[in-house]
Design brief:
2 copies of one chain form a homodimer. Chain A has 588 residues and is α+β, with helices and mostly antiparallel strands. In chain A, 57% of the residues lie in helices and 12% in strands. The first copy, chain A, is globular, with a radius of gyration of 24 Å.
Chain lengths: 588, 588
């Protein structure tokens, strides 16, 4: 079966996990009416189900093609993009002055989750446009904003991010693309960029490349990088696309997944570009896009995980093997306990990741839109903390859950053209791009945790302790058991956090050796916390929803949360083992 | 880089983990000389490295092709098979009376690990021949053995296993292929079988299919299944292949991985076949092949994991990104702690899985060859216990480790034709075939654990406690810490085992809901135990080996073993959560 967005679960996550109600009545979101949430999501769900999902296997089989006239998207993608554009989806969370709808970012992300779930290869195109919009909103001059934002927000034009070069991946500072100042205030950009998602295509009339490059006299490393806007067609005085610029796609990568999304090698030959933000501050500008993109990539993990769950659940209902007491004749494999365990694992982990991502998005909204500076600052700390967890934990989950989805399908899951197999291949990119998950872990322990002397995580743990109290106060035995697991898990996270803050300054290698395990533990505990909060909130809902949320939170508590205390040694002791044995193991 | 077998690590695993010395001096292994182990493995390593590994990407890109004359293997495979055959590798562990070398099975498995590591798609062909040989050795009539064994053992002919039909996968009892008795004592076999690995090819002059089918008057279900031998060409009186039989490949599956291995849809139309073993006892006969095949598939997980580790390690030495104190200029990513953590995880888990598989193989050897009945019986219990763990734990590990290998490669790992990506795709089949890992978990808790009232696992835990004592007796602080972790982990395994034995009779669904988690815990604890034993044994070796084994055992202890106690609730409590919420979650 193809993807069908679980709108009610998204709404539940927005309300019970992420606390979207905090955004009501804020001046920046004057257009936000809680009653519109369901209609908006249902409209997006239609596009996802009816237009994007049927094209997912098409994109996988056909891929994009590089022709003499540039890249051509897979069959049907251009029409789908037109439908997307005409639906006004690109501008959902963009201020109304630029043609957007002025809604909270968290809603735009919930919509993007559906588009990614239906067709991740397609979803990447608007995702990158959104990054370009955010960079221009934050760093563009009024003239740049006027020239580019309306077209990007309407979806008439799309955007890209150009960071990576063959020698400069995680180490962006090693990039070599040159930008030579011209007399008219613009720059001539020359160099080669790789791994450029939707770097070229025929679905929009223009493509706006945001490109990191180096001025001739720039300092070495990451402090000598500037950000440039390089349009495929240079806008004319009337705003319409004019002369072809010196940028083109010279190759497409042959990838394991997301075949529908062209991954381009881009060549810049004296391409005309304009500086965005300040000279040599390009990395900071790019981080505006990156933070948003990282959260969005986290949602790709959620989306692929959800799609994998749906297809596995559908298969488990159809496929009959073996017998069980409650069924006459061969039983659907759904009736076998082990299959339901697998499906529960998938569903609980997807829900936990969704909660983390949405909570991060609400924090991002509040960090801009809250009326008082204190709330904004606290929200910013929370957004910063949750961003690397949202990105890495959710995308690792996406890979694991897609793999479980293959397993539920048995031999059928290994057939290359089943959706389960496609999702397993598609999911694998998300832990890699927009900063590998290892980079996310280093960001979490270095900048987000130690950079606040642990205060960011302490604030989260204070919130978790409040959930523990609330769960206990219900006197529901199952919620009390969840509270016990959550409390012990939070204590483990506190212990690991304190160790990390203490160890990083003096023994950075030892601390960083535990960073990935620390991020994994953080995601488990915070995810379990949100699910527990959901189970409490669901007490006010119908019995089925109540039972569902309790089962998911309870299962997660007995698996991930119960395991949390035992995982602290991996963080605090594991690193020392291979650092001491490094010479014998690796010769370094 | 291509696969290069780590012979010294295999030898270490054979000696220190698996206890191959127990096989010295046994009458069945009169040909076994410990001094021959290294030369044999080195000779096999050459074939793996020089012949099979270079063909691995060829097989992936070209795949096998179905022509009017049958299936044609990928370019180079037929020559490689000839080299394999001429090397005498097929008969390594077959009794000398059938043309084999009479060596322990564990050695044949170590050799197969190398062939799988170099080229898993290729390795499947001899693996299936081996299964056919074992079935004939155990259940064939003297005439059948004389007619088929010499040709199979020499590798002139290959073998297949034909179980699955579209409606009969894990539920083998649902199969419909018919066997009608003929006057000459043979049978006419008709039906369709799917997922038949190396079901047809041109590399050998004949192919011997072992086929499960049903007599006209057979009882329903698995008690009405008989096993038949169906040659592609019917042997003539002089033993050479004669008339073409009524069996052919009518389709090849398009798979996500192991493209070099043809996965055939086989059609039987009144094909001439001969009964193997007794009527309606086919499943028991097939289990002779299955047990061996399951251990062999576990080794595929080890092999793919080892290959993934090697290619990731090589990439981490070459790829330069970022800077570290100890290196001038951009540093190979191997110097980053997080990359070394990933590599250590890969290496430790591969070593643990290899130890489990080899230990299982030594137990299999002892179960036949030990002089006294008591030792044979104990070895049999041990083999039975370890087989599902070897299969499932190792193949899940293979998938995880292949995924980590992709991650170390960054964007390059997502390119479809890198070895890292191929291994990620290839690895995914192993948890599925030869009994899904869910089936293995049910076999472990039902037949192997509860079937012995827990005695099988208690024997293993007694052994683990002995290792704890030995580790403590060294007074090496690191080994003492490993001992502490191991002791707590063994206690957790005991608790989970007792719960399982207690719960299975009265609440089977609840028990089976925890089966997969129980298997995972078992593998972690038993794997950690073998690594600890290795670290103790390595004290007698050179400092580098000593440091290496201590680092691997120590890292595994601080990660998998330390986490073990916290994973018991997933087994004992997790199931109840989704069973109670099943109606709300899944509608059943």
């Amino acid at each position: 079966m193809a993807y069908d967005a679980p709108v009610s679960e998204l709404v539940f996550a927005l309300e019970a996990h992420a606390g979207i109600s905090k955004l009501e009545g804020l001046a920046d979101f004057a257009a936000y009416d809680p009653d519109l949430v369901v209609p908006i999501l249902e409209e997006a769900a239609k596009l996802a189900r009816d237009v994007l999902a049927p094209l997912n296997p098409v994109g996988d089989r056909h891929g994009a093609v590089l022709t003499d006239d540039g890249v051509v998207a897979p069959p049907g993608f251009a029409d789908a993009y037109t439908a997307f554009r005409e639906g006004g989806w690109m501008g959902l969370s963009v201020p109304e002055e630029w043609g957007g709808q002025g809604l909270p970012k968290v809603l735009a992300l919930a919509v993007m989750e559906m588009f990614h779930g239906a067709n991740m290869a397609f979803g990447l195109c608007p995702m990158l446009s959104f990054g370009a919009i955010e960079a221009l909103l934050a760093h563009g001059t009024p003239e740049q904003q006027a020239a580019y934002l309306p077209k990007l927000v309407s979806g008439e034009w799309t955007g890209t991010m150009n960071l990576t070069e063959p020698q400069a991946g995680s180490d962006v500072g090693a990039l070599k693309t040159r930008a030579v100042p011209l007399d008219d205030g613009s720059y001539a950009i020359s160099g080669q960029k790789i791994y450029i998602t939707w770097g070229d295509h025929e679905m929009a009339e223009n493509i706006i490349h945001l490109v990191l490059a180096r001025l001739p006299d720039a300092p070495a490393g990451s402090r000598g990088i500037s950000l440039f806007l390089v349009p495929k067609f240079i806008p004319q005085a009337d705003g319409t696309p004019g002369a072809r610029n010196g940028v083109r796609c010279i190759g497409l990568e042959k990838k394991m997944g997301i075949h529908g999304s062209p991954t381009c090698v881009m060549e810049y030959t004296d391409a005309k570009g304009w500086l965005i933000g300040e000279v040599n501050k390009g990395l900071a500008c790019m981080f505006t896009m990156m933070n948003s993109a990282r959260l969005n990539v986290g949602l790709e993990g959620v989306a692929v995980g959800e799609a994998a769950y749906q297809t596995a659940f559908a298969y488990a209902q159809e496929r009959k093997q073996g017998r069980v007491e409650s069924v006459t004749g061969p039983a659907p494999i759904l009736h076998h306990a082990d299959v339901r365990r697998t499906l529960t694992t998938m569903r609980a982990r997807v829900a936990a990741a969704r909660a983390i991502c949405y909570a991060c998005a609400v924090a991002a909204d509040l960090s801009h839109a809250a009326p008082d500076a204190e709330t904004r600052a606290a929200a910013r700390v929370r957004e910063d903390l949750l961003t690397p967890i949202a990105k890495a934990w959710s995308t690792d989950m996406g890979v694991d859950v897609a793999s479980l989805g293959v397993q539920v399908h048995g031999g059928m899951g290994f057939m290359n053209e089943t959706l389960a197999a496609q999702l397993y291949r598609d999911a694998r990119i998300a832990p890699i791009y927009e900063g590998t998950n290892g980079i996310q872990a280093i960001d979490l322990v270095g900048r987000k945790l130690a950079g606040t002397k642990g205060a960011s995580m302490r604030a989260m743990i204070t919130e978790i302790e409040e959930t523990v109290r609330e769960a206990r106060a219900t006197n529901d035995p199952q919620l009390v058991q969840i509270a016990d697991r959550l409390k012990a898990a939070a204590a483990a996270l506190t212990e690991a956090s304190d160790w990390m803050v203490r160890t990083l300054p003096d023994e950075p290698e030892k601390a960083l050796a535990g960073a990935t395990e620390y991020l994994a533990l953080s995601g488990d505990v915070i995810g379990g916390h949100f699910l527990a909060r959901g189970a409490i909130a669901a007490r006010a809902l119908d019995p089925a929803q109540r039972a569902r949320q309790l089962a998911l939170a309870g299962y997660f508590a007995e698996t991930a949360l119960a395991a949390a205390p035992g995982r602290v040694p991996a963080i605090t002791e594991g690193g020392a083992r291979f650092i001491e044995g490094s010479e014998a193991l690796f010769g370094v």
